[in-house]
Amino acid sequence: MDDASPITRILQDKTPGDGSPVNSLLPIVYDELKRIAAAKLARESPGQLFNPTALVHEAYLRLVGPSLRDFENRGHFFAAAAEAMRRVLIDHARERGRAKRGGGMARVDLDTGLIDLDGGGPDDDLLAIDEALTRLEATNERKARLVKLRFFGGLTQSEAAALLGISRSTADNDWLFARAWLLDAIGGAA
After folding, report:
1. Residue 42 placed within a domain
2. Which domain does 85 fall in, by range?
3. How many domains, the chain?
4. For 73, which of 8, 62, 85, 109 could close a Cys bridge (C-beta 3.0–4.6 Å)?
5. Residues 6+ apart with CB under 8 A from 93
6. What is the pTM assigned to this prediction?
């Protein structure tokens, strides 16, 4: 990612001024965040209470709050934004699960094709993926970050590879491994 981009300059500007960096940043990143949110929500199960605008707003509030955290550059910011969107959707899925079923989780049957790591599924599937992803992250953080960027952030393989600072072929290999690992982990989950 370009360290000279306007986004990176805003993120790295620590000088106090009249305009809040939070207010300066939002107009610049809003369209890209909305594109990522729309791509993710297009793969979610029908009946979502979120639309891309609501998801962007909720994730942005969680991401920056009243002031900007320390982000290294544009890539670091968008990776954090994808993670914030993931957390919003996971929290929402957990809340819906508690309201509908008293918090009980259903077994995910891979033979029915309910889980597709290139798309979204019902809330229970999303929670199963999140739990498996947390376990993957404990053993291989880069592969888990790639999945988060692709699955929850809606990025392409090339975009995710660039954000992670790895080659496209390494990203392809990591994606194949992570998919197989997650499908195996989800298949063994109760």
Report:
1. yes
2. 6-187
3. 1
4. 8
5. 123, 124, 126, 127, 130
6. 0.54
Give the Cα separation of 6 and 29 in Å (integer): 10
Does some domain include residue 151? yes
Segment 134-143 long-range contacts (CB within 8 Å, at least 24 positions apart): 135/185, 136/178, 136/181, 136/182, 136/185, 140/178, 142/166, 142/174, 143/174, 143/177, 143/178, 143/181
Residue 1 within a domain: no
Contact in structure between 81 and 148 (CB atoms under 8 Å): no
